[in-house]
Amino acid sequence: MISVWMTFFTSLIISIVAQPWYQITQAEETATNTSLLQFPPDFKCEAGKECSTTLDCSTGLSCFQATSNSSGCCLKALKPNETGCFLDDQCKRACESSHCDKIQSPARCLCDSGRHFLFNKCWKKCPEFALSEPITDEKGFSRCVLKVDTGAALNYMRRFRRQLRSAFC
Ligand SMILES: *[C@@H]1O[C@H](CO)[C@@H](O)[C@H](O)[C@H]1NC(C)=O
Ligand SMILES: *[C@@H]1O[C@H](CO)[C@@H](O)[C@H](O)[C@H]1NC(C)=O
Ligand SMILES: *[C@@H]1O[C@H](CO)[C@@H](O)[C@H](O)[C@H]1NC(C)=O
């Protein structure tokens, strides 16, 4: 009996001691760093657009870069090929495999490399209703080329919506 209790207390103490308190500190530090790094130095959040969650933002905007300490900014989530991003997160909020290309002016959300643009989405591979080989322009922007007309392609996407769910974002 005693040894059962001993075992219990020993494991209890071990589990308390083993709490990764340092990881919490690290996570906070990372959050602070990314927020410092992610807003460009010349970025100013418009007056009245500061937020701690998306509930603080007006319709159509989402809260970006809020931490427990510092307020974020209400901005638009942008689909691939939409312009006006300041942060990668604005693109990623709409499509996980996209990023903000700040080299272009205005900055534009682009598909990550290895993804191909079509209908404001980033595809893992070009769908059946497009040529299997994407074309890449001189900026490295890769896109799929339809082999049927737009109407037929959109119909196909509607019909196979469920099957296509993981084909793009
Ligand atoms: C929050 O602010 C306090 C003091 O203002 C600072 O010591 C702490 O490092 C900050 N933490 C984060 C996650 O920014
Ligand atoms: C946070 O940034 C500082 C310098 O800006 C750097 O020294 C530190 O390693 C960074 N921490 C993390 C967790 O990235
Ligand atoms: C991306 O958007 C621009 C307008 O900003 C448009 O001219 C262009 O055709 C779009 N690219 C594609 C591949 O649809």
Question: Can you offer a commentary on this structure?
Answer:
The chain is of the alpha+beta class and 169 residues long. 33% of the residues lie in helices and 16% in strands. It is built from five helices and nine strands, in the order ααβββαββββββαα. The strands form four sheets. A three-stranded antiparallel beta sheet has the order 1-3-2, with no helix packed on it. Strands 4-5 form a two-stranded antiparallel sheet. 21% of the residues are buried. Residues 12-37 have low confidence and may be disordered. Bound molecules: 2-acetamido-2-deoxy-beta-D-glucopyranose (NAG) (3 copies). One 2-acetamido-2-deoxy-beta-D-glucopyranose (NAG) is lined by residues 28, 31-32, 67-69.
Structure in a nutshell:
Residues 1-18 form the signal peptide. This protein is an alpha+beta fold and 169 residues long.
Strand content: 15-25%
Q: Helix content range of the residues, please?
A: 25-40%
Molecular shape: elongated
Number of helices: 5
Describe the largest sheet. 3 strands, antiparallel
* Bound ligands, each once: 2-acetamido-2-deoxy-beta-D-glucopyranose
Structural class: alpha+beta
Number of strand segments: 9
**Through-space gap between termini:** 58 Å
What would you report as the Rg, rounded to the nearest angstrom?
A: 23 Å
Residue windows where pLDDT falls under 50 for at least 5 positions? 12-37
Signal peptide: 1-18
Keywords: Signal
